[in-house]
Amino acid sequence: MSLLSAINIGAQALDANQIGMRVVANNIANANTPGYIRQTLNLGTAVSQKVGNLNVGLGVRTLGVQQHVDLFVASRLRDAKSDLEAGTQQRDVLQELEGVLGELNDTDLSTGLTRFFSSINDIVNQPESASVRNVAILEAKRLTSDIRSVAGQLREMRTQVNDQVKGEVDEVNRLLDEIAKLNVKILQTEGGNAAGNAAVGLRDQRLLALERLSELMDVKATEQESGTISVYAGGDFLVFDGTARSISIETESNRGIAINRLVLTETGSTLRPEGGVIGGLLASRDETLAEAIDRFDQFARTLAYEFNRVHSSSQGLVGFGSITSVERVSSIDTPLDEAGLSYVPENGSFSVLVRDVASGQTRTIEIPVSLQGLDDDTTLADIRDALDAVDGLSASIDSNRRLRISTEREGLDFAFADDTSGLLASLGIGTFFTGTGAGDIDIGSELLADPRRFAASQEGIGTDARGAEALASLGDRPIDSLGGLAITQVYERLTIQITQASASAAAEVDGLTVYKNTIEAQHLSVTGVSLDEEAIRLMTYQRAFQASARVIQTASDLFEVLVNL
Asked: pLDDT tens digit string along 14-42?
C-alpha cells in the first residue's frame, strides 16, 4: 500500500503544481491589466498518517489562491487620488477664472477703469464741451458692458460647474450599485470565508470600482469578515453587504441660479463631499466662484454708488425740467433706510437748486433726511411733501412708488447739491450709473440722450468743474466703506488674489501628484506583477511537476515489479 500512497502523493503534487502554473500564467497574462492584483497559490502539508510507529506525510494540499494587497496602502492611495482630483478641479476653475478677468491683455477692466477716469480728467480741462462729456459717457458705457460681460461669464462658469456635479452623481450611483452587486457575488463564491480570497477576479473588479469611486468623492471602505466591504461617506453608509444607498439631487436658489445639493435618497440628509471630483466642484462652486461673484459684484456696486453720490450732488450744463427716480420703495410711509432700497441712505440732508434760466438767479433749499431710528424718521412721503413745498417745484409719487419731481412753470429748471445722506444715489435721482450690481450696471438713458447732463459742476448749473475733479479722483481716493481702499484697488486686489490662488493651487496639485505617485508605487510594489519573479516561480513549478511525475513513474515501475513476483 505504501507504493500506492507514493503514487497518490505524486498525483496530488502534480495537481498542485499545475494549479500553481495556472496562477503564474494568469499573473503574466494580466501584467498590464489595470486594477489587477497579483495572485499566489497557498500550499499546505496534508495530514500525516500513522504507519506502524511512524508518522508518514500524505503530501501537499492546496489552501487557496490569495491576492497580494496591503489594505492600509490601498486606503491611502484612494485618499491620495481623492485629494488630487479635488485639487485638480479647483486649480482648473481658478485658471479659467484668471482668464475671465483677463488681466494679461489690453481689454481688461483695469485698463477700462483707467480710460474712464482719464476721460473725466478731460472734462476738467474743457468743462464747457458737451462732446468731451460724451466721450466720457461712451467710455463708461464700454466699461459697464465689460463689467456685465465678466459678471455673465462668472455666472456661466458657476452654472457649468453646478451641472457637472449632477453628471458625476449619476456615475457615483452606478459605482455604488456595482460594488453592492460584487459584494453579493463574492459572498456567494467564498461562502462567507474570505481567508483564501477565492473570488479573486471579482475582488479585482470591486477594488477598481472603489478606486474610481474615490476619485469622484472621498469615501472610507471597511472589509468585513465575510469578505464584503462597507463604504461610508462622512457618517453615512453608502454600501453595506448587498445594499447600496443612492444619492439624489435637490435644487435650491443661490446667487440667481438653481444649485444642486447632494442628499441621501433614503433619509434626505445632506452629503457634502470634500474630496474627489465632486468635492472639488462643490468647493469651486460654493467657495471660489461664489466669493469671486460676490466680490466682483461688490466692486461694481461700490463703483456705481460712490460715483453716483458725487454725480447726483453735482450739476450739469443744463438743469432738469422733470425727473423720476429709478428705484422704488417698498412703502412710501416706511423710513427710507428700511424701505427696501438697494443702497441704504443715512442720516443727513441734500439741497435742491431752483434756477430761473433767463436771469440765472438760483435759489438753494436744504431738504433734511432724518434717519436716526426714531418715530419721526424720514419717509418717501416726507421727501415728496418737502419738495412739493418748494416754490416752483411739484413733487409726487407714481403708482410704482417712485418719486417724480418737475417744475411748475416754463423758464425754470432745477438740480441737486450737497447730498450727505446718499438718498439721491439710493433713489436713482440724477445718477450716472444704473443697476444694483455687476449683472445689470449701465448708464442712465438721460445721459446717453443728452451728454450735457453729465454733472461736472458743484457751484451751480454749468458754472465750474469741481464735480468733475471729484469724480476723476474717485478711482484712487480711499473710501471708508472699503476699509480705506480705493475703487481701483478693490478690483486690483481681487485679480491679484485670484492669480495667487491659481498659482498656489497649481503648486498644490503638483505636490499631490508626487504624493499620489509615491503611494501608487508602494501599492504596485505589493499588487503589481513582476515578470522576472513569475518566471522564477514558473520554473519552480515546472521542476516540481517533473519531479512529481518521476516519483509516480518510479513507484509505478516498482509496483509492476512487485506484481510480477
From this structure: 998 898 899 889 889 988 888 788 888 88
